[in-house]
Structure formats: C-alpha cells, structure tokens
C-alpha cells in the first residue's frame, strides 16, 4: 500500500453504525408477515426495535450487560407478548436468523463507491451487535457483503460490555482506531455515522464529530442536550453524502498532509495536491 495513503487513512475515521444506518431493521417485517398479518408484522417490527434499544439503555443504567443477541431475542418476546401473538422455539430461532440477514438501505452501493475514491478516509463498522452478529449481517447481505473489504475493522461494544450511548463505548472506538482520547483534535477526527439520534449525542458528548442520516427528512428533534454537543456536526438525507461532507470539513488538513508527504509543490511539479471538495 502507498505510504501516503497509509498515513492519511489513519487520520480521518468514519465509524458506521449498522442497525438503522447500513441495514434496515424495518425489513424484518417481511419475515414477520409470513407468520402474522401485514399490519401486525409492522407493529411487531417497530416495537421489537424499540424494546431492543430500551433494554440496552436500561442495562447501561443498571450496570448490567447481556450480549446483543440475547437482548434481541428477549425484546422480540416482549414485542410478541404486547401484540398478543407468539412463535414457537423453532420459529423464534428462524426469526433470529433473519435478523442476521437484514436488507441494506438502497444508498449503500453509492456510499461504498465514494469511499473507494477517498483512500485518505478509514472506514470501520461500529455496532451494538456482537462480532458474530455483525459479521453474519455483513456476509449474509448481498449488497453489503461485496463491500466487506471497504471496512478496516469491526468495533463492537461487547469488548467493553456497555451499550451506546455510554461514553466508554466511544472511547473504546477511539482507541481501536488509534486515537488518543485525551487529545481533542484526534477525537474530532473520528466521525460516527448513524441514523440513531442517541448515537449522535453519545459521540458528540465525548468530543467526536457525528453525521446524522436523516432518511425521513424530519430534521433534528432530539433536545436532551443543549448547544452544539446536543446536535450532529452534519445532517445528510442519504448515506452517500457522508464522504463528501467529511472531505469538505477536513480538506485543509488533508491537503496539508499531502504536502507533508510529498514536500513542497516546487520540488514535485508533476504532483498536484488534492483539491478541496
């Protein structure tokens, strides 16, 4: 690998959330519909996701941890009870397998292509899921599997036994991508990309940048934290806008790095530094 790309790729980091950002959790409704009516299936899919997240937040507050696969199965049970329906053990196991093969959002291909044109950006997966769950989700998704090599690493919360948006999760991410958590500039070089507001606020709270993927186009509504720390650094409506947004923010820094690696332009007249996006 080119030395310049190696150095630059370690400076700016894009940490992509999985569930609700790369993969659509609502797509599980199609599988549920094979057991229940369409309306009931949609309701269960929505409540399943809500309780899945609620359980993780409650465990954070209680100082407890169960891995995400158990949380996912137990929250499914809760959602089924609430809708007054049930699945037997075999059906539940089959449903859990379906959760490992969720469909991608349609902008994944364009996003991955934009990453390929930005070798100065390091991309990682950053998820509440276990390493096994995330790996299965990537490998079982035709749209995502072909881009698996675009990600340098999979960073999961089971390594610290906390869930987003606990601060330890984000500090763990920073350390995994080689950042000094006491250096504010280095923390700002990490961008969490997520469609989940709680993830955005969690990243901003520790000094990271964050891009919120507002697929519904409703605008930022989360009001838990006042000021800039309670808002995303950038808002995009589609995932494929992320790379351009980050490159624009860090264009001066990336150009400076280019010059540092290549020397002054006068010494290398045939080489031209990357233009600002």
UniProtKB/TrEMBL annotation:
Q: Quote the Pfam families the UniProt record gives.
A: Hydrolase (PF00702)
User: Looking at the record's lineage, which domain of life comes first?
Assistant: Eukaryota
Hydrolase listed as a keyword: yes
Tell me which UniProt keywords the record has, alphabetically. Hydrolase
Query: What segments bear the compositional bias annotation Basic and acidic residues?
Result: 259-270
Question: What molecular function terms (GO) are annotated for this protein?
Answer: hydrolase activity, acting on acid halide bonds, in C-halide compounds; phosphatase activity
- What Gene3D superfamilies does UniProt report for this protein, alphabetically? HAD superfamily/HAD-like, Putative phosphatase, domain 2
Spell out the residue ranges making up region: Disordered: 250-277
Q: Which PANTHER family match?
A: HALOACID DEHALOGENASE, TYPE II (AFU_ORTHOLOGUE AFUA_2G07750)-RELATED (PTHR43316:SF3), HYDROLASE, HALOACID DELAHOGENASE-RELATED (PTHR43316)
Q: Which protein family is it in?
A: Belongs to the HAD-like hydrolase superfamily. S-2-haloalkanoic acid dehalogenase family.
* Descriptive protein name: Haloacid dehalogenase, type II
